[in-house]
Amino acid sequence: FLALPTGYVQACRALMIAASVLGLPAIFLLITVLPCIRMGHEPGAAKYRRSQLGGILIILLAMCGVVATIWFPVCAHRETTIMSFGYSLYTGWIGSALCLFGGCVIVCCSGDAQTFGENRFYYASGSSSPTHAKSAHV
């Protein structure tokens, strides 16, 4: 691999670093969307936008991984006719495919902004309200 031209090797390395850098904010955004986490009295539309942005970042992460893990073996095979790349390449393909699938599921299944956050029940002591789990007979 040391004899390979450095142009596409550096580009693939940059794509994988970009994917790693995109993953951290995406995970933080998606953690803040969990139903058990509330940030003040924010509307459901704010959580909806964060979930959409997190899903889009996960899709971008997957695209960087897909391009890097497909481009590198194709160019390396063309230059040196290497046939064996190891398990890390297959791991990259599987990881990128799962990230792409997960990002698509997050973007498609997060619902619309108006109903995001509705029909959620919480447990609290004191008087019962319409969103209280005991009063909803859950």
UniProtKB/TrEMBL annotation:
GO (cellular component) term, any one: bicellular tight junction
Transmembrane segments: 14-33, 53-72, 92-111
Subcellular location: Cell junction, Tight junction; Cell membrane
Signal peptide: none
A GO MF label: structural molecule activity
Membrane-related topology note: Multi-pass membrane protein
Entry keyword set: Cell junction, Cell membrane, Membrane, Tight junction, Transmembrane, Transmembrane helix
Top-rank lineage group of the source organism: Eukaryota
Cell membrane in keyword set: yes
Matches recorded under InterPro entries: Claudin, PMP22/EMP/MP20/Claudin
Main location as per UniProt: other
Protein family according to the UniProt entry: Belongs to the claudin family.
Protein name from the UniProt record: Claudin-11
